[in-house]
C-alpha cells in the first residue's frame, strides 16, 4: 500500500464512518473501482483497520467529551441528584442501544459480511441504504419532535436494532440509527447526537476485537508508522465531519437525509453498472 492510498483510505474512513453513506460499503466498492490490489483480510492491512478505528473513536470522544464527562460524573454520583439521575438514565439508554449490535455482531458478523462483501453486492446495498434514508424521511414522526431526555428503554432498543442492519456492507450504521431515531419521534439533531454517542462504544469494541489478531501477525516493516499517520488523518476528518453534521442536522430538519440518500442511490447504481461491465 502506498502512502497516497493510505491517506485516501483514511479520509474515506473518517468521513464515511459518520456520514450516513456506509464506510464499510465504500471500503469494499472504492478500491474495486480504482483497481487497488488491497486484501483487507491480509495481516499487512490489519494495523490500518485497528488504527483507523482508533482515530475515529478518538475524534468522537474529543468532540463529545462534555457528554462523556457528564455521563461519567453521573455514573459515579458526582453532581446534584437531578443531574446524576438524568446522566445515569442516559448511560443506561446507551447501553441498551448497544446490546443488539454486540450480540449480533459477535455471532453473525463474519457470516453476513462474507456473504455481502463482494464489490457489486456492496454497491447494490448502497442503493438500498439510500432507499432506507428516504424511507426514514418519509415516515418519520413530524410535529412535537422529541429530544434525548424523552427517550425510554424501548426507544433505545429499537434504535439499537436498527443499528444491526449496518452489519451488511453498504448499509450505514449512522444512517440506520438516525432512521431509527426519526421513527421514534426524534428530530435530526437529537437523532444524530444519539447515533454518534452509541457509535463510540461500538467502534471501540470493534477496535479491541481487531487488536487481538495483531498478536503474532506478520506485519511488514514500516506498516505501523504509515497506519499511525493514516489514523491521524482519519481522526481529523472524523472530527470535522462530526462538527459539520451536528450543525447541518440542526439546521435542515425537514429534509436532512435526502441528499445522502440521493448520493447513495446514484453512486451505488453507477458503481454496480461499472463493476458489472468490467
3D architecture notes:
With 278 residues, this protein is mostly helical. The protein has one domain (22-30, 53-215, 234-277). The chain has helices spanning 3-16, 23-34, 46-63, 65-75, 81-116, 119-139, 153-163, 173-183, 188-212, 223-251, 258-277. Helix 2 runs antiparallel to helix 6 (119-139), helix 4 (65-75) crosses helix 5 and helix 8 runs antiparallel to helix 9. The radius of gyration is 19 Å and the shape is globular.
Question: β content, as a range?
Answer: under 5%
What is the total number of structural domains? 1
* Secondary structure: number of strands: 0
Indicate the mean pLDDT.
86
Helix content: over 70%
Distance between the termini: 23 Å
Largest sheet: none
Number of helices: 11
Q: Which spans have pLDDT < 50 for at least 5 consecutive residues? A: none
User: Which structural class fits the helix and strand makeup?
Assistant: mainly alpha
Helix and strand string, N-terminal first? Answer: HHHHHHHHHHH
Global shape: globular
Q: What integer value in Å does the Rg equal?
A: 19 Å
Helix-strand layout with pairing:
Elements: H1 3-16, H2 23-34, H3 46-63, H4 65-75, H5 81-116, H6 119-139, H7 153-163, H8 173-183, H9 188-212, H10 223-251, H11 258-277
Helix pairs in contact: 1-2, 1-3, 1-10, 2-6, 3-9, 3-10, 4-5, 5-7, 5-9, 6-8, 6-11, 7-8, 8-9, 9-10
